[in-house]
Amino acid sequence: SGLSATVPEALRSSIAVSAASTTPPVVSVVAGADSVCGWVEAQTCLGNASATVNLTLPAPVSLSITKQHSHHLLVPLNNVALELPHRFASANLKATVLFEDGSKRDMQVDARMSFDVSDGCGTFGVSGLWMRLTIDSTCRTSSISVSARLTLGGTTVAGSRDVSVEWVTALEVELYYQDEAYSYTSMELRYRYDCAPMVEPTFHTLKVKTLATLNTGATAYIGSRLVYSVIGGSLSGSGITRRLSVSSRGTVEIMVEASPNPDSISDSVTLEALAEPDAYTFEWVLGLNSSTVQTRY
Prior knowledge:
Layout: E1 3-6, E2 15-17, E3 27-29, E4 36-44, E5 47-55, E6 60-67, E7 73-74, E8 87-88, E9 90-99, E10 104-106, E11 113-117, E12 122-127, E13 130-135, E14 143-152, E15 155-164, E16 168-176, E17 188-191, E18 206-214, E19 219-222, E20 226-231, E21 234-236, E22 242-245, E23 250-258, E24 266-277
Parallel strand pairs: 7-8, 17-24
Antiparallel strand pairs: 1-4, 2-3, 4-5, 6-9, 9-10, 9-13, 11-14, 12-13, 14-15, 16-18, 18-19, 18-22, 20-23, 21-22, 23-24
């Protein structure tokens, strides 16, 4: 004979009863259940019966928030700081609830859990089993507070944690000799020394790098999210190191700016290209002390 059960509206958010024709019916607790007490009515060909269901859940006592990758540093969306290692515009969060019976449960994607971030610095969205925080592109607060709140029945628990935010505050154009081993600090650019008298003189070829500085003082050379422009010369190459070529005398200016650039961050270096040979000072250093040198005739 068939057997079915009816769950009243007041219980449907907390319990479920297996489908008809199951003997006996199985009552299970659904995700997001609250403590509740009520009646379930069973129907058979012999008549109806009812059973009391008293569901008592332990009350929540505390809530803690953790990041999936603790070593990842957060930066605003689309900021140039994303070019630095371990910088990301979003973080996956876990909200763990401790109950009075000592049990713990990760409830970050539970519909009864709400999240907030200070200063309007970000947005939240479910990402698989995680709650993802994305830092807004306009956020310029170095320390923000991420909070979560859960209400179960008549009990509410909340938790928060501070999160650091980094962004680029300055760019600096740096010049290097062609081998990149030494900085080029002169404000003048001259012809390279060439022993062959019949060779037409050419200007030094320099390497160009851009150093980014964050609000925390951290620095790194970056090769993307930049826009270069040159007056009196040309840049070639890609990535962190670019190649500056100059073919005629005059003023040479190398400019760089962030892309995108909401904070109007830029830098430039100016050189004067002179149509005259460079001067060199040669020094021979043996690295020997006088006691090791002998003279023979």
